[in-house]
Automatic annotation (TrEMBL):
Domain D-glutamate N-acetyltransferase-like C-terminal: 131-327
PANTHER family cross-referenced by the UniProt entry: DUF1611 DOMAIN-CONTAINING PROTEIN (PTHR40690:SF1), GLL3100 PROTEIN (PTHR40690)
Pfam family, one: DUF1611_N
Residues covered by the D-glutamate N-acetyltransferase-like N-terminal domain: 53-124
Superkingdom assignment: Bacteria
Protein name: EBNA-1 nuclear protein
Amino acid sequence: MQIPQPYLLFLGDVTDPLAAKTARGILQWRPEICTGQLRLTPETVSLGLADLSLADAYAKGARTLVLGTANAGGFIPQTWLPTLEQALDIGFNLASGMHQRLGDNRLLAQRASANSCELFDVRHFDGELEVGNGKARAGKRLLTVGTDCSVGKMYTSLALEKEMNQQGLDAQFCATGQTGIFISGKGIAIDAVVADFISGATEAISPDFDDHDWDIIEGQGSLLNPAFAGVSMGLLHGAQPDAMVLCHEVGRKHIRHLPHMPMPTLDTVMAANLTAARLTNPRATFVGICLNTSALNENEARTYCKQLASQYQLPVTDPVRFGVSAIAEQLHQL
């Protein structure tokens, strides 16, 4: 999946700022590919971009209209369809992270075919994949892993990519989730892959390379989350990581949505990930810990980071508050 850029970010008629987190993520990490925004009503949330019509955005070079919002149920509202149809008639590709496929709408599929446009349903994957083989590949890889889901693995991966490039390491972000694919323009939504092919899909996302220094592979789920451990294991084996960064939310009491499952300790999570990773890369090692310290004030967060850094003899940081420069510096030595 490779989505043509630049984008026009479609915000529909949503009024909840949280519903626009996909579009906001694209703008935060790839502002250079965001031509503008398209809102259906004045009350629709705004990203602060220029409000453009479809025709104006296409004239400015935008080539894909990205549905940058989410709603309960992941369906495409009927009120959006005239705009999506008009976009295809102008020549836009459409990209969506909704559960409902664009291609399942007969009229959109016909319009796309008639106008030689593509429909990208990034939450789904229908391509051919091979099972993983565990063979060593050229190039160095970093994988973000977590104590749970939704602990900052994508944010940490993108922050590391940016910092490493600023430090002179040529790093490329490899997307494994919907928002990451929009940001990167390519990738595979790993949670849409049949279980037998997860490690093979990860090998396909980051094949042999010698034209840059590092691939930064976006982690998913957690090896000790009973709901999502399968995807995490497949990523570990397929990524064959030389380096791993552990992501954790300070203060989380239990596995997300599972109050009967207490959070595992950092020691337990790190040991489990090392054991699994070393099946396909015996040299796999942790190079840092990234924390979501939003439950702490800044002084408390600094103190806690220093405490864990002393305990684990690794750089420990909150990537939002303090950046990831110390972790990136570790990677010059690998």
